[in-house]
Amino acid sequence: MIEQVAVNTLVGTASITLIALSFAMVFQVSPFLNFAHGAVFATGPYAVIWLTEYCGWPTWLGVTFGLAIAASLGLGFQGVVFERLSERGASRLVLLLASLGLYVVMQNIFSLGFGDETRVLRGHLEGSHIVVHGGVVSAVQLAMICVAVVVTGGLSGWLQCSRAGRAVRSIASDVTLATIVGLPVQRIRFAWVGLGSALAGLAGILVAFDTDVRPTMAMSPLMYAVVCVVLAGANRPLAVFACSSVLACVQQVSGYYLGTEWRDAVAMTCLLLVLVYRRRNALILAPADAV
Description:
By secondary structure, the chain is mainly alpha-helical. The protein has a single domain, classed as ABC transporter involved in vitamin B12 uptake, BtuC (Orthogonal Bundle). Helix content is 75%, strand content 3%. The chain has helices at residues 2-29, 36-54, 59-87, 92-114, 139-161, 163-173, 175-180, 185-211, 219-232, 237-258, 263-277; strands at residues 129-132, 135-138. A hairpin with a 2-residue loop joins strand 1 (129-132) and strand 2. Helix 1 packs across helix 9 (219-232) and helix 2 (36-54) crosses helix 8.
């Protein structure tokens, strides 16, 4: 049993890391608590369901276009809603409320279009299970772990070593100074939001292949992502991965000893503690001049 808890911790680390890194990417260039990112996360799997079950597309093509749809939705939220609100001098609290409204609207669209019942997506993939030191891991879970490791390492190296990565870090540090030195802030912002939204869609699709799809699937992963980004910082993918590991370990251990119904409660408690004791990372009330 302990072996399976260890395997589940690795899988949980991978799923939390992917959504946390996608949230961190968007937060770097649009720094506020964006609940609409959860809607982007859920859009990926629902797009795959629509394309494969209703349109008859093959799974690989549905996944590809699902990522594109998730990226387009994130860019649409940024360009149509958040940019315009920012231009009018909206605070981060206003942006948070707007993003929460978008999340609720999208959740209701999913419920109206696909129903409130849990939808099975894993039937599109037939994968074997692998036994690792007494723990069982599926092919999808193994793929999720590999993707999380590759994305974490690649993103960390790209931010540290590439010119474009340093430009993103400059915008995250001081958008006004980045504009003064001539960086194309808006173009970089939209490109980075699009990539982060695509990664959120990929995270949602992988999680859906592992645990199925429902309209409310995004809130818990989004809260885990917020905890990790607030603790680790948006510019530190390796630290985000480490925080995801700790949070996944706490989640699995609490589920093992207290029951699975306590896992979300433990995560929300961690979020409250972070917001109380990490005041320098306030995501809500500061002015939104960098959005």
